[in-house]
Amino acid sequence: MPRKPNYSFERSERDKAKAAKKAERLKAKTEKAEARNAGLQKDGSAESSDQGE
Question: How confident is the model at residue 41 (pLDDT cuts 50, 70, 90)?
């Protein structure tokens, strides 16, 4: 005899997995942006953007 489906539990598990994946992607994105910004600050490229004025 098959088990009785528990739709609310299954949905909460899917939502939990989706939230974890989204958090991981956001973390990777922010780390990449921080690394990019740190690289700009080391080179001084961020300060030289005022020369066009």
Answer: confident
